[in-house]
Amino acid sequence: MNKVPVTVRGHELMQVELKRLKSEDRPNVIKAIAEARAHGDLKENAEYHAAKEQQGFIEGRIKELEGKLSNLQVIDCTAVDAKGKIIFGCTVELIDEDTGNETVYKIVGEDEADIKTGLISFTSPIARALIGKNEGDVVNFSAPGGEKQYEVIEVRYE
């Protein structure tokens, strides 16, 4: 199985979530199930069914995170000598050649991507077009709204 790239921050966030699920959420839902059981008839006990459903969600997420964490390749872009090239994990400042609008993106793993906060997956069309480019390069790519052209203003490794 291929390793899945993730930034240092993304790895830390996954570990924090897994720890919270195991040390807080799991014990809380077990306690809620025990309390609901104490109320009697389980067939008509909405609290019990809701707690069991929550338990299933928590256990599923724990399993998912453990699986992902065992198959990650943590990439620290600050430890790589990229010689100014755009690589996984770096932050890129771009200017739209058509509108003049400036945009900042950080190229991250698929699980970390959140376009609203400027985190784009390395598998996205724009990231694939950007990787390997340098400051001053012009990048063309197909976006859902049509062809786009950006100039790379700055590449940061942070």
Summarize the structure.
With 158 residues, the chain is α/β, with parallel strands linked by helices.
Commentary on this structure:
The chain is α/β, with parallel strands linked by helices and 158 residues long. It folds into two domains: 4-74, Helix Hairpins (Orthogonal Bundle); 77-156, Transcription elongation factor, GreA/GreB, C-terminal domain (Chitinase A, domain 3, Roll), CATH 3.10.50.30. The protein contains three helices and seven strands, in the order βααββββαββ. A hairpin with a 5-residue loop joins β3 (91-96) and β4 (102-108). α1 runs antiparallel to α2. It is elongated and about 70 Å long. The chain starts with a strand and ends with a strand.
Task: Label this structure with key terms.
158 residues; 2 domains; alpha/beta; single chain; 3 helices; Chitinase A, domain 3; Helix Hairpins; 5-stranded mixed sheet
SSE blueprint and pairings:
Elements: E1 4-7, H1 8-37, H2 46-69, E2 72-75, E3 91-96, E4 102-108, E5 119-121, H3 125-130, E6 138-143, E7 146-156
Parallel strand pairs: 1-2, 4-5
Antiparallel strand pairs: 3-4, 3-7, 6-7
Helix pairs in contact: 1-2
SSE sequence, one letter per element: EHHEEEEHEE
Number of strands: 7
Poorly predicted tracts of residues: none
Strand percentage, roughly? 25-35%
- The class by helix and strand makeup works out as alpha/beta
Oligomer: single chain
Shape: elongated
Gyration radius from CA atoms, angstroms: 22 Å
